[in-house]
Amino acid sequence: MADKTRLWLPPLALSGCVRGVMLRDTHGRDLTDAERHTFFPATLLVSLLCWRGSAVEWLSEPGFVPPPPGFSMAPTVLSGPFTLPSHMRASGPVQGTQLLFFPDAFQMLTGIDVQALVNQSMPAERVLPSDWRAWANALQAEGDDEARLALIEGFLLPRWQAIAPQRTAGRRYAEWAEALAVRAATSSAGRSLRQIERRVKTWAGLPMRELRAVSRAERAFLAAMSSEGPVNWAELAADTDYADQSHLCRETRRMTGFSPDDLRRRIVSEEAFWAYRLWS
Predict the structure, then answer these.
(1) Is residue 145 within a helix (H) or strand (E), and if so which, with residue range?
(2) How many CA atoms are closer than 13 Å to the CA of 17, on its beta-carbon side?
(3) Is 90 contained in some domain?
(4) pLDDT single digits (tens) 52-68
(5) In the structure, what pLDDT confidence band is assigned to residue 173 with cuts at 50, 70 and 90?
(6) Phi/psi of residue 71, each to 5°?
(7) How high is the mean pLDDT of the chain?
(8) The total number of structural domains that make up the chain
């Protein structure tokens, strides 16, 4: 059966709200146990996962975000920004839809403090407003991809348009992070460097240095994946604002759990790195 894994990028009207939606359905695919694993990088985004199917386990290992104590996968799961990568394993076929929100947009839309979500995951029904809970449950119950995407756009678009004066635009991390910094700097609530940094962390959950680190990592990732043949990592590091190749290697390992060469090889050859391939 054909692979039903794909990435949906939102229309321009949702720019700055939703970074993208990952859709995956492994029913009908003859996957090995190793192929039922999934690796995710560190992220500055807020994730809403609606899924159904076989049990999913969040694995705990050095260098990766551990599951919260007593955590088990609910049908809808809300996760905050992660400063480390994460590793999941499904026991069998699953179908899932993972919405990736820019953190300031999610906070404006729901009123939920994103700083409290950093490196955390929880059943979405515990924290989402009532209208969001009903919407998330409808997404989880819907089996058709196109119908789910229509539900996403129909629910979010009017809410996002209603807060137009506060919106931060941008599709790539770098565009969004710089727009957020500009908004923080031009706020009437105080413009010292410390106040700007505090404001950014309040809106994004993470400090500006981490937002810029993820932006830098995205540029390096896209450059590495578009390169044919061996990558000159020292040259790539210089081109993407790292101090040197060692800096690139350290940051890549921190955010993904792997060295740059190993990560690039695994993305190309291993099913467990499907989430990386969607963005390459």
Answers:
(1) helix 145-161
(2) 23
(3) yes
(4) 999 999 999 999 999 98
(5) confident
(6) -70, 140
(7) 92
(8) 1
Assign residue 130 the CATH number of its domain: 2.60.120
DSSP assignment of 203-255 equals HHSS-HHHHHHHHHHHHHHHHHHH--SS--HHHHHHHTT-SSHHHHHHHHHHH
pLDDT value of residue 153? 97
Task: Report yes or no on 16 lying in a domain.
Answer: yes
For residue 178, report the phi and psi dihedrals to the nearest 5 degrees. Answer: -70, -35
Express each pLDDT in 78-103 by its tens digit: 999 999 999 999 999 999 999 999 99
Full domain range(s) for residue 54: 6-165
Task: Examine residue 106 and state whether it is found in any structural domain, yes or no.
Answer: yes
CA distance 183 to 167: 9
Q: Stretch 5-9: mean pLDDT, rounded?
A: 96
Helix, strand or coil for residue 18?
Answer: strand
Asked if residue 265 is part of any domain, the answer here is no
Distances (CA, A) of 120 to 52, 78, 117, 150: 21, 8, 5, 28
Report yes or no: 255 and 82 within 8 Å, Cβ to Cβ.
no
